[in-house]
Amino acid sequence: MSTRVKLFRWRAILPLLLFVALMVLLWVLFADAFARRQAQSTLSSLLGTEVDIASLHIRATDAAIDIGGLAVADPRHPERNVLEAGGITFDLDPIPLLKKKFVLDNLKLTGLRFYTARATPARPADPSSPSSKILEETEAWARDKFQFPKLVLGRVDSLKSLVLKPEQLGTVQAARSFAGRVDSVQGAFEQSLGQLQLKALADSSSALATRLSKTDPKSLGLAGAKNTAGQVQKAIEQVKQAKARLATLEQATKTSLGSLEQGLADVEAARQRDYAFAKSQLGLPSFDAPNIGAALFGQQSTNYFQSGVHYAKVAQRYVPPGLQPWNRPGPKRTRMAGTTVEFPKEHEDPRFLLKHGTLGVAVGAAGQNLFKGEVSGITSQPSLYGRPATLVASGRLAAESPVSIDLAGMSRHFGAAPLDSVNARVGGAALPPIVFPDLPFTLDPGASNVAFRFAMTGDRLDGAWELGAEHATWSADSARLRSASLVESTVWKVVSGLTQLHVRAELGGTIASPTIKVSSNLDDAIAQRLRGLVNEQVAGAEQKARAAVDSLVGPQVAALRTKVGGLNTEVANRIPAEKGELDRVQKSLEDQLKRIAGGGLRLPKL
Fold first, then answer.
1. Is residue 177 part of a domain?
2. Which of 13, 141, 301, 464 is most open to solvent, judged by the fewest CB atoms within 10 Å of its CB?
């Protein structure tokens, strides 16, 4: 009798269906909420600021995600959002999802707004997050690297005493570093000269010439004369080669000495900067036009450039160049969670990739807001993708008055050095007032044209910031202005009647040694008026500042100049002396060779 094979356990089907239905119900009810909270937490940690998402919906059948009401708080100003987006749609490529990789075929971002006020201040970011640490580091970098003179003054005849410390002065550090370069050049010269072994060559060649001078050529015979002539020719060739190597050493040493002269100029430039720093400690005005531009708009310019460095470092932190392993916290375990390390492989999809995205503003009438943009190539592993991330956007936003925007950015984190750059031009924007904390007045630029350019290639910086306003207005704090000093009152008389404002700041150098140059159309007008206030007390105070710096750095700089001068003298005397000795030895050998050849024997031609 055959036994019937049961393919299904019908009693288990109903519980299984109930379990599947429960999972589907839980997914429908809670998947979006869970994903929204997870996205907020992850973005807040990445950006180092509060990120709010009003809604998030996962469309599994379409492999897409819809996000509504994105708000990213400004990490430096918690009372405002740096970016708001009304709607975001991600279209995912489903195949890479099987490998836990997110490849976005398309991104649509609409309803953009920038620098909007928040209803409530943003929550403080986690100070231990990488972005928060980068923000803290860049703010400290801006404070340490950029110091601007002040125009705030009390009475010039009540200057405070000046006490400087060596660690405050850049000349001390520059002199220490340069002293090492001088020692290195001197050591390399002595070593190279010693390796030529000129004294041994000169002594042996002189001994050969002396010995031949006492020998009768006829007594050598034909074979002996030929052998002796060969020895002399070989010695002459060795002397010629030594002279050629000495000439090469002379040229290389002159190049090195030229770099040392430039190094001395750099040390002297550092001393000039220390003079300005010491003067700022006394509260003295700087009557030079460039310094006035830096005093008025230097801090404002630094804030813009510091933001550029901050976001570039964040990009390099989360999008490192090269095929570096990806570290993330491991799953929770009883003993220790540890860290999961994923090693990327070439010719595979990156862990995250946005192939193409569109940006747009969906507010107001269609004819008023024509701002559109495109992004491409945004990835967490650029070396795998092999193409830079780009952003291009332009258009017009109509508020009370039209605002034109042109924006271009690029991030290339592969190749010789990572590059992050942005170029932006905004026309007709109503800028917030510029407050000068140390002066009793405020500047309202009004509708202005702003241009910003920033690039960081490796550790090199290149940037510019420009502001142009044709209808600027100035307002004064009347109470403070009544008690203002003569200098502050003079500055107010100059600026209060000016309506045009043009400011330009340029950034250069490296992260370790940045430079900034600030100028404006106010500089010359203010400088001319302030120069009339210079008196003996101000001149004496400036001399006092220079003397304070010179007392700390003067001996070091003088010692460096003496050291470089001594090295120049040594090279100028030593090389001609060695060359003269070789010339003497060569001539002596050639004379002996001619004497042997003139002794009646037929010798080979030289």
1. yes
2. 13
